[in-house]
């Protein structure tokens, strides 16, 4: 029943995603905001793999997203590589770089790892900004082509691009669900719960940490490739650490270490900031305290708190059922004793 309810919930979310362009009544701005939220949701799901499931907080995640985006931008604009080939390479280039960064950084633990990756992310930002011969520097890369047509389907209009991004978001969620519920996902969670415990279970820590890191930045690279084809312009700002902090906020609001939480956070928070735009420069004064209150009173995020409440409720019901059955078992036992004494 639990599995059926989960499938129904995911199908409802998919139906809402498909119906959104009709709900938005053809408003291209709404489609752009939602599609951008989907792209960052893909990257956030990847960050949740290394942070929420494996317990390693990577502050260079936006840098790897920039690597994927610039892979598409450089290959398509400077070398006339077809978009889909460049897009396919975006995730693998980010994962390849992640392999070497992971080998060095994952020897560190806790906040030392986070500080090291923050430095790596800043180095990525500086390379993008200063290496003009490759990245075009502060001028950025302009004129990135839209995704080329597939089987007659063109992706020039905002609606077509929206559905394209939605398609890749569905794929990202599907494969992350498979990873999280596999033996590999349980291995990552064992590492999160404690290195000593994981080693006692026979888990190769470095190999699995590096694998989790590579899968995480693979998601970031693909999200960056989609971002390049959607926005059609790139600047060094995409590598800024503030984007990693935004994705961290999405995880905290939705529920870190869950599959649905980062998705809801990445979609809901941007829309909340959009609705607070009427406050202009003061909207963050309102949004900041709201976030602090949420973190204080709902520390496990919306989805994490709901799952915790559901588990506590199930435990309470099980205790009540056990308490009802115990007196009944006692009455049956006493009646059997009386019957045997009469005999």
TrEMBL record:
<feature type="transmembrane region" description="Helical">
    <location>
        <begin position="7"/>
        <end position="24"/>
    </location>
</feature>
<feature type="transmembrane region" description="Helical">
    <location>
        <begin position="284"/>
        <end position="309"/>
    </location>
</feature>
<dbReference type="Pfam" id="PF02653">
    <property type="entry name" value="BPD_transp_2"/>
</dbReference>
<keyword id="KW-1003">Cell membrane</keyword>
<keyword id="KW-0472">Membrane</keyword>
<dbReference type="InterPro" id="IPR043428">
    <property type="entry name" value="LivM-like"/>
</dbReference>
<keyword id="KW-1133">Transmembrane helix</keyword>
<dbReference type="InterPro" id="IPR001851">
    <property type="entry name" value="ABC_transp_permease"/>
</dbReference>
<feature type="transmembrane region" description="Helical">
    <location>
        <begin position="30"/>
        <end position="50"/>
    </location>
</feature>
<feature type="transmembrane region" description="Helical">
    <location>
        <begin position="111"/>
        <end position="128"/>
    </location>
</feature>
<feature type="transmembrane region" description="Helical">
    <location>
        <begin position="250"/>
        <end position="272"/>
    </location>
</feature>
<feature type="transmembrane region" description="Helical">
    <location>
        <begin position="210"/>
        <end position="230"/>
    </location>
</feature>
<keyword id="KW-0812">Transmembrane</keyword>
<feature type="transmembrane region" description="Helical">
    <location>
        <begin position="57"/>
        <end position="77"/>
    </location>
</feature>
<feature type="transmembrane region" description="Helical">
    <location>
        <begin position="83"/>
        <end position="104"/>
    </location>
</feature>
<feature type="transmembrane region" description="Helical">
    <location>
        <begin position="162"/>
        <end position="180"/>
    </location>
</feature>
<protein>
    <submittedName>
        <fullName>Amino acid/amide ABC transporter membrane protein 2, HAAT family</fullName>
    </submittedName>
</protein>
